[in-house]
Structure formats: structure tokens, C-alpha cells
Design goal:
The protein is an alpha/beta fold. The protein is about 20% helix and about 30% strand. It folds into 3 domains: about 60 residues, Trypsin Inhibitor V, Chain A, CATH 3.30.10; about 70 residues, 2-Layer Sandwich (Trypsin Inhibitor V, Chain A); about 80 residues, 2-Layer Sandwich (Trypsin Inhibitor V, Chain A). The chain is built from 4 helices and 17 strands. The chain has a 4-stranded mixed β-sheet with strand order 7-11-8-9, covered by helices on one side. Strands 13, 14, 15 and 17 form a 4-stranded mixed β-sheet that branches. The chain starts with 8 loop residues before the first helix and ends in a 24-residue tail after the last strand.
């Protein structure tokens, strides 16, 4: 029989309790050492600093960094810390985590809304509210004065629904109203659609929606055989109009004989499609 087996039962119970308390004491002491109980540190100011600098600063102070959220402001440098939790100068335990919100490195994409037809002031409000910028503003003779006629991006027309990055500048073409000087109504009959459009653009005249004769499939290869207003009256007197006004044209496949066309505004042929 061993020595321990000769001891009474109460001795074994006390020995077991002593062992348990000893282990508990060692655990508490080691826990305090592991968690550095009682040690604290002041949270440094990281708001307004670049993310790379913040990472190094927090590691030096014994903090962990986690990016909690990101937003985008075009006027603020990319990657800058905008908010932090805990706040600067808070006293916390060491090894705590600092959560930050940063300004995104890459601008988010948005869809361009419909701006044509809006007044310049309303278009400006929409553009700024969605985070875009107004680039160059040019004017085109048009009866819709101070109205957005076209939106350009990098010199090319851009349509509503196109994807564009926040902070991107877009250019606006604005109607300047009808011109003050009277000009002769241009003669368009016998010209191709493209020739007629180029001529009207050069004079600041608006081309209405073309009206096609049956069989016309490609407007680029079609010819103007009628226009409104006509260039002359029945007695051959030239008519005038102003820049910013509109001319409607009718197109057909064959090139018309201009000399045989009557210069007055005649009723359309029976087989001519309606304007609307």
C-alpha cells in the first residue's frame, strides 16, 4: 500500500482543491500577462492622413487597423482617412483595433441621366448632385434658348444611360436662341441627306426629322426632293429665315431633276407618307 493510500479521504479532497486553486491562480496571472491587463495607450490622430502612413503609425503604437468603410469625394485625395473609431486621444487598452473610413482610390461608376431638354440651370444642379463636373460650355444657334442640346464626353456625344465615373467633366452644348439676322432659305433639293445636313449646320439652321418616301432604307444615300419652307415663292422671290429655325425635308432614292422641280410649296404627291 502506498503512502497516499494510507491518508484519509479528507486529505485527498484538500489536495485536489489546492491543485485546482493553484491552476486557477496560474491561469489568471498568465491571462493578465497575455492581455497586458492594466496597460493602456492613447489612440493617435489618423483622420486626414494617407492610408499607408496610418498603417505604419498604428503598428508602431500597438494598434491593429481595419478599413470599415469607404466613400468617394473627388475633392479629397484618394486613400485619405476620413473617420476613425475610437477617436483620437481616446485612452484604450493596447492591442485594440482602430476602424477607419477612407476615401476610395477608384471613383465609382454611375449612369449618365438624360440632360438634353433641361435648362442649363437645372442641368447644372443634376450634374453636381450626381458627382460629375461641368467642363466646356458651347453655344449653338437654336430656338430652345438656354436649353441643353447635347452632352459631350472627350469631344464625342454621349447618350443617357452611358456609364461614366464620378468626378468626370462633361461638356454641354446650349441653345443660344434664334439669330437676329435674316438669311436666305438654303436650297436643299437635289442634295444628299448628308450634304443637306452639313449645309444647315454651317448656317445654324435646325434639320427636322426627315420624311422618307417608300423604298428609302439608307438616309445617307437618299436625296432631298422637297423642303419646307421652300427657298422661293411662286414668282421666284427668295425667302428668308433666321438661324435657329427649322427646315423639314423629304427624301427619295432617285436624284431629282432640280430644274424641273417647282420652287413653290406644292401639295405632296398622293403616295407621299404623312409627316407624323
Amino acid at each position: 500500500m502506498t503512502l497516499l493510500s494510507k491518508k484519509p479521504l479528507w486529505f485527498h479532497i484538500l489536495l485536489a482543491l489546492a491543485l485546482v486553486f493553484t491552476l486557477l491562480f496560474l491561469f489568471v496571472v498568465s491571462l493578465n500577462w497575455i492581455t497586458k491587463h492594466g496597460e493602456s495607450s492613447t489612440v493617435p490622430m489618423v483622420t486626414g492622413k494617407k492610408l499607408d502612413d496610418v498603417q505604419a503609425l498604428l503598428e508602431e503604437k500597438g494598434f491593429e487597423l481595419i478599413i470599415q468603410d469607404s466613400v468617394f469625394y473627388d475633392s479629397i485625395p484618394r486613400g485619405m482617412v476620413l473617420r476613425q473609431v475610437p477617436e483620437a486621444d481616446d485612452v484604450v487598452k493596447v492591442n485594440r483595433t482602430v476602424y477607419v473610413t477612407i476615401n476610395r482610390f477608384i471613383a465609382p461608376d454611375i449612369e449618365l441621366p438624360k440632360l438634353s431638354g433641361l435648362s442649363y440651370r437645372n442641368a447644372e444642379m443634376v450634374i453636381r448632385n450626381i458627382g460629375l463636373k461641368i467642363g466646356d460650355t458651347t453655344f449653338r444657334t437654336d430656338f430652345a434658348k438656354n436649353t441643353v442640346l447635347e452632352v459631350l464626353y472627350q469631344g464625342k456625344s454621349i447618350q443617357p444611360g452611358a456609364t461614366i465615373k464620378v468626378g468626370t467633366p462633361i461638356d454641354l452644348v446650349i441653345g443660344s436662341g434664334v439669330g437676329n439676322e435674316a438669311i436666305l432659305v438654303p436650297k436643299l433639293m437635289g442634295l444628299t441627306y448628308e450634304e443637306a445636313r452639313a449645309l444647315l449646320d454651317a448656317q445654324g439652321i435646325i434639320l427636322g426629322a426627315p420624311i422618307f418616301m417608300p423604298g428609302v432604307q439608307d438616309s445617307a444615300n437618299a436625296y432631298v426632293y422637297r423642303q419646307r419652307p421652300a427657298p422661293t415663292t411662286l414668282d421666284g422671290k427668295r425667302l428668308t429665315m433666321r438661324a435657329g429655325q427649322m427646315i423639314d425635308i423629304w427624301l427619295q432614292i432617285e436624284k431629282p431633276n432640280v430644274d424641273s422641280l417647282e420652287k413653290a410649296a406644292q401639295p405632296p404627291p398622293a403616295n407621299e407618307p404623312n409627316e407624323y
